[in-house]
Amino acid sequence: MVKFMHESEQTALLVRWLERGRAWLDELQTPTGLHASSAADHYHALFGRDTLWSVLLVLEAARLRPTDRALASWVGEFAARGLRALAATQGTSERDENEEQPGKIIHEYWPEPRRWPEGEWPLWEGRYYGSVDATYLFLIAAATVWQQVEGGRQLVEQLWPHVLAALDWALKYGDVDDDGLIEVMPRQPRGLGLRNQVWKDSNDALLLEDGAPPKPPVAWIELQGYALAAFREMRPLLQAAGAEATLLRELEERVERLRKGLPRFWLPTEHCPAMALSPEKQAIPLVASNMGHLLWCAALEEPYASQTAERLLQPDLLTPWGIRTLSRTSYAFDPYSYHRGTVWPFDNAIIASALWRMGRHSQALIISRRLLEALALFDSPVELYCVLPPEWILTPTTGGAEVLAVYTRACKVQAWTAAALMLAAAQLLAEAG
Fold it and tell me: Which residue numbers delimit the Mannosylglycerate hydrolase MGH1-like glycoside hydrolase domain (predicted)?
């Protein structure tokens, strides 16, 4: 692990991480937007969710460094390019074949047909809209830019028709069964595309105790937070734009319904929310990193927020190199799987950001240090990596220590990991003063 001997050396190294993160993100910029990974990797295309989390994480990094004018300027332009790219690819019509809907933010756009995914993938002119979360994140990002970035209000005014279209989608399509919660309900008529239309989008990311995936609709815990935050953060923008009182009241009502629905997720014996609800609105008892996104959205009241924060830092989730996607005591745990036990740097950065916002700086720094130590060993903003528990290793014995390992199909240069390391470095620099 990286050890810093002198404060000046530590500061210089952290500043270097910030610079490297910017350089990696600049390399991923294209005329059609920020690509999720490098040309040598799997996802060299515009992905809505990846762009938005990259924007949100670098915005947070800039907020932690208020005197760094160069960083603020770069972040403002980076955010503007990201939002404009997603506005340009926003859904405009109803098309079940690629799950497009008016106002919906794209899941992925492959501008070059030669790079389209192999096999039958539900693209229409290179576009697929199979994500529920991206539209809410677009609204949060627009509101954050409006509040934080110099010139952000003018940018949001330019994009205002797209913001309103996204809000209309969020109000119209997110709650598929009118119970106040946001659900995933794929619409592709041939069953192509993604079953899990959230960031943990592999088909086996969410499993029942019998090993089968739940049937839709599924209410993922983080979706409730994203929607709640989007509706809450949009109110000042709408008020400034002179929106009708009926729309403002509807947003208040949606926030209240979401808050009232959150107790359905609570696992009393685990002192944290479950990963998701089944179609019958029963908690699927998996302890996962998703709850950290709910904290980031400031969606939980006390004492539930504090209990959730403490749960994330227990040893079944927290490793020497960051927080796992799934508890090692969960029935579905597999440290080699894509989303059921690996460690994702961007996921950890969101949790570290949430803890910092809660005033839990020392806990946030635990995650940020471990994240940077892992990425220093890879010397690259890798998509994800494995941390193997000692009981998964036969020889050589590790003395009870967990082992950092490569996830062989991980992208080597991933945009939101570059943004994550910038956030981690900014936290450590802020703490150092």
Answer: 140-374
Of the candidates 332, 311, 289, 319, the one whose C-alpha atom is nearest the C-alpha of residue 389 is: 319
Burial of 235 (0-12, 13-18, 19+ CB in 10 A): middle
Question: Would 416 be classed as within a structural domain?
Answer: yes
Compute CA distances 199 → 73, 121, 125, 271, whole Å: 29, 18, 23, 23
Of 154, 153, 155, 156, residue with least CA distance to 167 = 156
How much is the average pLDDT of 247-264? 98
Predicted local distance difference test score (pLDDT) of residue 433: 79
Instruction: Kindly give the interhelix angle for 69-88 and 48-63, rounded to the nearest 10 degrees.
Output: 160
Q: What is the pTM of this model?
A: 0.97
Is residue 425 in a domain? Answer: yes
DSSP-derived 3-state class of residue 153: helix
- Number of neighbours of residue 66 by Cβ within 10 angstroms: 10
From CA 284, how far away is CA 280, in angstroms rounded?
10
Ramachandran quadrant class, 300 (left: phi over 0; alpha: psi -120 to 50; beta: rest): beta
Q: What is the pLDDT of residues 291-340, one digit of tens each?
A: 999 999 999 999 999 999 999 999 999 999 999 999 999 999 999 999 99
Listed residue (57, 140, 80, 32) closest to 381, CA to CA: 57
Domain count, the chain: 1
Residues 6+ apart with CB under 8 A from 228: 254, 255, 258, 259, 297, 299
Question: pLDDT tens digit string along 348-401?
Answer: 999 999 999 999 999 999 999 999 999 999 999 999 999 999 999 988 877 889
| Any domain includes 371 | yes
Range of 354's domain?
Answer: 1-30+316-433
